[in-house]
Amino acid sequence: KESAATIVEMLKDVTSYEGEDAVFECRLSRETSQDAQWFLGDVPLQSNEMNEIKVQGTRHTLILRKVTLEDCGPISFKVGQHTSAA
Q: What 8-state DSSP symbol labels residue 19?
């Protein structure tokens, strides 16, 4: 059984203007097959035309495309028992 990955680089707060993209990044202690999930408030985010979710090795990236005022709120990233928020 693999040991749980931990978050070694936490999310940073991002300020964007309406119509811009907002980019959030987290880095884990190691690559993991564990489910990692992004949230806006309490809503789980999926990769679609508005949100791009990328994983490159230990780096997990969320790009919110052309943000609007409705996108304002806390972003969080969860993996296992670990959470980071911005």
A: T
Residue 71: its pLDDT value, please? 87
pLDDT, position 2: 62
Is-contact 22 86, C-beta < 8 A?
no
Contact 49, 2 (CB under 8 A): no
Mean pLDDT of the chain: 92
Binned at pLDDT 50, 70 and 90, residue 35 comes out as confident
What phi and psi, each to the nearest 5 degrees, are found at residue 19? 90, -15
Nearest to 65 by CA among 24, 26, 25, 22: 22
Alpha carbon 69 to chain centroid, angstroms: 19
**CATH number listed for the domain at residues 7-85:** 2.60.40.10
Task: Give every CB contact of residue 32 below 8 A, 6+ residues apart in sequence.
Answer: 2, 4, 5, 79, 80
